[in-house]
Amino acid sequence: MKTVIVTGGAGFIGSAVIRYLIENSDFQVVNFDKLTYAGNLESLASVAEHPRYRFERGDICDPMQVKNLFVEFQPRAVMHLAAESHVDRSIDGPAEFINTNIVGTSVLLEASRAYWSELEDANAFRFHHVSTDEVYGSLGDTGLFHEQSPYQPNSPYSASKASSDHLVRAWHETYGLPVVITNCSNNYGPYQFPEKLIPLIITNALDGKPLPVYGKGEQVRDWLYVDDHARALCLVMEQGAIGETYNIGGHNEMQNIEVVRTLCSLLDSRVAQHPPEVSKFADLIEFVTDRPGHDQRYAIDAGKIKAELGWVPRETFETGLAKTIDWYLANHEWCDHVRDGSYQGERLGLASGA
C-alpha cells in the first residue's frame, strides 16, 4: 500500500489534509506529530479508527525518530506541515520557531535524502513542503504575490518559514531531492486553534469577552477555506511538477476589521442571546496596540495552480465563513478542550512590542 507521512497532522491544516486523504484517496496515512499546544487528536476523531490511518507521536527535530519513521513506513511522499505558526508567539519566543521550522525541516530533508537515495525507482518519492505567503513580506495597495516574488519576511515566524523554503530548494538543487513547495494565504475553518483571528473572535464573542483588533484593523488578508487548501495540497503532492512552487489563495481579500464585523453580524443572526450589556456582538470590538512589524497586506496570485493543475477554491468567503461559524457554534466545547490554562483569549505578542 502506498504511504504518505504527514508531519504536523494533528494541527489545523494537517488534520484537514489527513481527513481529505482518508476520504478521497487510497493512501495509507501516517500522522507524525509532537502534540504541542496546537496539536489535537480530537480533530481526527472521524478517521481515528480507519484501517489506513496511523498516528505516531514524535519530534521532527529528532533524527533517530525521523529515520525510524522512514524505515518502518517506506513512504511514497512526505507532506511537511509541522511548524510553529503563530506570528504573535514568534515575537515573544523566536527560538522555538527557529528550532522547529528550520532545524526540524533540515532533519526531515536529510532523512528524506538518505531514504530516497536508496530507492530503486528515484521517481517513487517526493517531499512536499507546505509554507506561507508571509515569506514574501507586505504588499502595497495593489499587486499580488506570485511564485517569483522576492522574499522579504518581517516577523520571526515568516523568517523561519522563509529559511525552511530555502533549505528545501537547496536540497533539490544540490542533491536532486524531488520536492514541491506550496505557499498559502490565511486559512480558516473548523478545528482551528482559537488564538487565530476568526476562531478567536467567534469564541470570545460567545464568551462575552472583548474582541481584540490590532491597530485600526486595516490590515488586508486573502482568506482560504481550509478544506479547499487541503484539496490543493493533495493535488500538488501527487501531480505538481518536481522543483516547482505553487501559490494557493482563496481570492478573498478583506480588511481584518471587515472580517470581524462580518463575523459579528453572522453571529447576531445565529445566536439568540447576547452577552450582558451589549445589544449586538460588534459592541465587544476593542482596538488594541498593533503588533510590531505587522504586515499591511497579503494577496495571492493563484493562477499557476489553476493553469497547471486545474485547482480553484470551491468556497466563497461568505459560504466558508458561514460553515465555520456553524461548526464553532456546534462545537464550542471543543475549543474549551484545546485551550490550555495559560490561554484566555488575549492577543499574544504584545509584551515585546510595548
Overview of the structural elements:
Helix 5 links the parallel strand 5 and strand 6. With 354 residues, this protein is an alpha/beta fold. It is globular. It has helices spanning 12-24, 63-73, 87-92, 94-117, 156-175, 197-207, 226-239, 256-270, 303-309, 317-330, 332-338, and strands spanning 3-7, 28-33, 53-57, 77-80, 126-132, 179-184, 186-188, 211-214, 220-225, 245-248, 253-255, 285-288. The longest helix has 24 residues, at 94-117. The chain is built from 11 helices and 12 strands.
Question: Which descriptors apply to this entry?
Answer:
11 helices, alpha/beta, three-stranded mixed beta sheet, 354 residues, seven-stranded parallel beta sheet
Short précis:
With 354 residues, the chain is an alpha/beta fold. Helix content is 40%, strand content 16%.
Largest sheet: 7 strands, parallel
Write down the overall mean pLDDT. 92
Strand content: 15-25%
The parts where pLDDT drops under 50 for at least 5 residues are 341-354
Give me the secondary-structure category: alpha/beta
Rg over CA atoms: 20 Å
Compute the number of helices: 11
Shape: globular
* Number of strand segments: 12
Secondary-structure element string: EHEEHEHHEHEEHEEHEEHEHHH
Helicity, as a percent range: 40-55%
Gap from first CA to last CA: 54 Å
Strand neighbour order, sheet with most strands: 3-2-1-4-5-6-10
